Write the structure tokens for this entry.
Amino acid sequence: MTTEWWRTAAIYQIYPRSFADANGDGMGDLAGIRSRLPELADLGIDAIWLSPFFTSPQKDAGYDVADYCDVDPRFGTLDDFDDMLAEAHRLGLRVIVDLVPNHSSDRHPWFQEALAAGPGSRERARYLFRDGKGDTGDIPPNNWESVFGGSAWTRVTEADGEPGQWYLHLFDSSQPDFDWTNEDVREEFRRILRFWLDRGVDGFRVDVAHGMVKAEGLPDWTPAADGGSMGGASHALVEEGVPLEPEIHDAGDGAPYWGQDGVHEIYRDWRALLDEYPGERILAAEAWVDPLPRVAKWVRSDEMHQAFNFAYLETPWDAAALRGVIDASLSAFGAVGAPSTWVLSNHDVVRHASRLALTVENLQGHGIGPRTPGLPDPVVGLRRARAATALMLALPGSAYVYQGEELGLPEAIDLPDDARQDPTWFRTHGERYGRDGCRVPLPWEADRPSFGFGPTDAAWLPQPASWADFARDRQRGVEGSTLELYRAALGGRRSHALAMGSVDWVEPSGADGVLAFRNGDVLVVANTGSADVPLPAGEVLLASAEVADGVLPADTTVWLRA
Ligand code: NOJ
């Protein structure tokens, strides 16, 4: 029997480095994850997605894989993985792992072999090696820039000690891009998919699913200045607290490395492979392209099951803009028979408890730090984040929750410069803070070392002292806490079958900062404006902030019995 569980699933993203550390070395691990799974089952989610835990030199926090079929010793062993998976399944949680097919680590044996084998070899043909331009070949093959800043090309030293060919890396120089026209690469990834499917995983989140195929001839390209770093739209603009009209940007459109048609053939191949397995294993695309009808190409019925809805993530806290993106999402994904997904935070963007209160434009991937203009008011940020989540979890489709958002964690803005580890920080010489601020280890128990992240004080990124107040044990069972709001919303989403429902706008939705819709027997009303509005009559099922006396205050979402 098929349940199509992925159409409605609430999926919790675990960032293994920062979730829970069993051995006390300051880096989270699989045993830590296993030990905390009951907490997640209790929260009311359906599945977990784990960012990479594979063998890796960790130049990009594990998105630089040296062995796709083994666990990095920092995170444990394959046995630890199997134990964690079994425990998740015992608790009724599905497990999705990250697949990183656009590039490997430069420590991957294939890349090492490619370096050794030299120009023109079968080994080099698995990556994108090219001769440089100019008399001495010292000019990169084209003008592409790395997502993390600087050139997307690095020159190698050949066996004779002379400067030689260049290789392409859309990300860090330690992340050489594969050549996906090469059958060796295709075959190897089929093997990798089977390896994890045979172990029992329920699916894959596919990294850079818009980037694997490059346009023939690798033509020059200069991206629009307002393009988000991963491609697609820029971060929604906000000026002086007033959200600007969201535009559908075409920043990624036309880039010879994003969203090339050839990627779809790969996913059709993978889908057929997954469908050989019982139990509805899924593929979820990380594809930063826009507009939404373009994203929907990734989830046509013979391709992936889900695609992240980054257009939603990038929409400002503004009723009209939200109505627009919700309609556009339901219509674009609906047109291909796929569920819409919803997401507000992940390990690449400023946490929404901070982002929604930024007052100056901040491009996706650039991050925020002590010297960033327009830093958020934390009280406003948290209030908006709670309201935004209460709205998101009432929408039909599948929703993603990033670890720590259920605690209301803000971005860690004040990380010391010397603690930062994101390659973006290094490649831009500190001009962009990058993504470390959303990756700080979680606080579990306020009064324990590392707030219970592990048994010692160690944490690979320092935890702000103020995070004691966000610790899970300070919020568990506490009425009005963010944790209890998430639990109630996830529970209500289930008991009212909201994820299977539909959005029926209640007019004049979108006007005056108010958004209102009916989904089944629930009336959802969000006030994104700065003034009180009348609260419709009815039993309050859920409220992101206190409501009383017929008033719905600013930055508040309520669910009422319709
Ligand atoms: C997207 C991942 O989410 C991000 O963390 C990573 O740096 C890039 N892809 C490169 O793999």
Remarks:
- Residues 234-251 have pLDDT under 50 and may be disordered.
